Amino acid sequence: MDWQERTPEEKAESLSQQMEEIQRAKAVIERFERLTQKWLELVQPTKKEAQSLSMTLTRESG
């Protein structure tokens, strides 16, 4: 059905459903951002440790 053919009630219901979908999507995005931040906080120290170990091994072998 075309938007122009809908009744005001149908339009309101459609917009309400869209708002619910937007809120759910926003919640998923926010959760993903939090998980990504936690992952980065865990990975960055490990990456620094690996770089440090690599530099140590390079010095010892050279």
Describe this structure in words.
This protein has 62 residues and is mainly alpha-helical. It has one domain. 87% of the residues lie in helices and 0% in strands. It has one helix and no strands. The longest helix has 54 residues, at 8-61. The mean pLDDT is 90.
Features:
single chain; 62 residues; mainly alpha; 1 helix
The CA-CA distance between the termini, in Å, is 74 Å
Helix vs. strand class: mainly alpha
Mean pLDDT equals 90
DSSP strand content: under 5%
Task: Supply the number of structural domains.
Answer: 1
State Rg. Answer: 26 Å
Order of helices and strands: H
Determine the number of helices (DSSP H or I, runs of at least 4 residues).
1
- Return residue spans where pLDDT drops below 50 for at least 5 consecutive residues: none
What kind of sheet is the major sheet? none
Write the layout of secondary structure elements.
Elements: H1 8-61
Question: What is the compact description of this entry?
Answer:
87% of the residues lie in helices and 0% in strands. The protein is mainly alpha-helical.
